[in-house]
Amino acid sequence: MTMSMRRTALALAAVAALLAGCGGNAGDGADAAAWATPADNGVAALAPEQILETSLAATKAAKSFHIKGSAEDDGEPIRVDLKISGGDMHGTVTMQGATVEVLLVDDERFIRPDKKFWALSAGAEAAATITELMDGRWAVVPEDDQDLRGLFALAVVDKMFEPEGTVTKSEATEVAGTPAVGVVDEGGDGGTLWVARFGEPYPVRIDAPAGEEGEMTFTEFGAAFAEIKKPAAVDVVDLDKLAGR
Predict the structure, then answer these.
(1) Burial call 51-73: b when 16+ CB within 10 Å, e when fewer
(2) What are the pLDDT digits (tens) for 17-44?
(3) Beta strands in 59-158 (DSSP E)
(4) CA geometry: angle at 41 spanning 83 and 46, to 5°?
(5) Least reliable range by pLDDT among 14-23, 155-164, 181-190
(6) pLDDT-derived band at 244, boundaries 50, 70, 90
(7) H or E segment and range at residue 215
(8) Do the bridges between strand 138-140 and strand 236-238 make them parallel or antiparallel, or are there none, so unpaired?
């Protein structure tokens, strides 16, 4: 694993320090609005630390969500598209033009990288060999490979709500049409977490720190993701055995 790939894995954990909020849609007509419009959930009146706690509790109670967007690491874009259910996860991470499909089920980690990923981490010649041997199958992530395990950092929901520095509360506003209140993390790789002010206080969007590009959106709270399932044994290879170790 090269240093640039290590930074990317670490950046995924840093990305989780940013967050955002979500809300519901109003019904059509006055009568519909009377019963369909979500009630004010009170988060705008809370201290920023309490907003984080409340949003974390709501997110964990939902049990699942979809996070998608981008961030930067030393000017390099990182794109994620991940569906998380409990402690399990499935989706893709793209960095330096390389894409890795990731799957976490019952604490077992699998990756299915493209050829560019293997070229960055093992060299072009080895990449061709590995890609041919894998033949579209999943590779088991070794327990001692902390770099690859870093790709799964966003599956730890609690970490997403842990600020790196002092947090402050922004003024209430609308984020992508959703009434929300922001929690600004002033430390390290922090950013702004927007939390819905109506309905469940779910995260909706992560905004990168001032001066940096990137945002991530949160959707599909409580959804059932059929793609999050353990692959069949015939569709899995062992990286260590593949390398002849």
Answers:
(1) bbebbbebbeebebbbbbbbbbb
(2) 443 333 333 334 444 444 456 789 999 9
(3) 64-73, 76-85, 88-95, 98-105, 108-113, 138-140
(4) 100
(5) 14-23
(6) low
(7) strand 215-219
(8) parallel
Cβ atoms of residues 236 and 137 within 8 Å? yes
pTM of the shown model: 0.81
Name every residue whose Cβ is closer than 8 Å to that of residue 243 and which is 6 or more positions away in sequence.
none
| Beta bridge partner(s), residue 178 | 175
- CA distance linking residue 71 with residue 79, whole number of Å: 7
Given a contact cutoff of 8 angstroms between Cβ atoms, the answer to whether 186 and 13 are in contact is no
Could you give phi then psi for residue 7, rounded to 5 degrees?
-60, -35
Q: Both tokens of residue 37?
A: 């419009």
Report which secondary-structure segment, H or E, holds 59. helix 48-62
* pLDDT tens digits along 71-91: 877 778 889 999 999 999 999
Q: Which of 186, 202, 182, 175 is nearest to 65 (CA)?
A: 202
Question: 217-235 pLDDT, tens per residue?
Answer: 999 999 999 999 999 999 9
Q: Are 206 and 20 in contact (CB under 8 A)?
A: yes
Local structure of 198: helix, strand or coil: strand
**Cα 194 to Cα 21: distance, rounded to the nearest angstrom:** 4
